Amino acid sequence: MGVPEGEGCRETGSRWVRWFCRLWAVDRLAEIAGRLTDVGGVVGVCLGGSRAKGTDRPDSDFDLGLYYRPPLDTAALRLLASELTGESVEVTEPGGWGPWVDGGAWLTVDGCRVDWIYRDLDRVHRIWEECREGRFEVGVQAGHPLGVYSHAYVGEVAVGRVLADPVGELRVLQRETRRYPEPLREALIANAQWEAPFTLANARKGAARGDAFYVAGCLFRAVGLLVQGLHAHAGCWVLNEKGAVQGAGRLPAAPADFAARAHGLFAMSGTTPGALSTVLDTADELAAEVCRQLTS
């Protein structure tokens, strides 16, 4: 099924585009996922991101998580990508996009953007065990200014939509991960309650020198910690930074107008010590409210 000229899924704001992409996705993605599991090393395929969560826009990509065990036959993936797109596609080796995003490919299939994103399934299993023990790590990764929280790997499985799973391993893992581990919940709440105030306190040193760059970084980090804590309190997985503040604002423990207040911190103008100190006063108030709520 092709896309009429000039009306591809790269356009935004069109009801027709939204309708087409959803209709296209029903059968076409299942077909692509089935072909992917024929590739050596691929264990299963999940639809992730906004398309899986139902928060997609007309221009949203279709993110396909390729859960694999080494060795992954990337030559076969390149051949399949070429067949699907009609052109040569760059398909990375595992790790080609960094330690946490891993690797994959960006495709345009029938006018719609389809991203292949590698996930080492044994690594996901290991991280799941760490989550159940209340352990997590934050990794540096291009495109993720807050860093990648390791439990995002587990959240991707929990909220994803399994498209192909020949041996049933992904569905078993998904059933397990739907229940948020209490040790992880406690660890993330405790981390937010100490590190967010600590980060804001450190920002005062930068504010006194008029170091707006340092203060902005501390504000971003502190808000990110509060967002992680609020999601953990509610037993909800955070996959990345995008939309996370708005999502946190809808959670039961969030203070009134949390999202607007958090975003407002970054709109307060001024680079003088006095102006920066005022912003931090406001941030301290918000952090204190969240930390109190996290104890309830």
UniProtKB/TrEMBL annotation:
It comes from the Bacteria. Gene3D superfamilies: Beta Polymerase, domain 2. Residues 34-73 form the Polymerase nucleotidyl transferase domain. One of its GO terms (molecular function) is nucleotidyltransferase activity. Residues 155-229 form the DUF4037 domain. Pfam families: DUF4037 (PF13228), NTP_transf_2 (PF01909). This is DNA polymerase subunit beta. The lineage of its organism: Bacteria, Bacillati, Actinomycetota, Actinomycetes, Kitasatosporales.
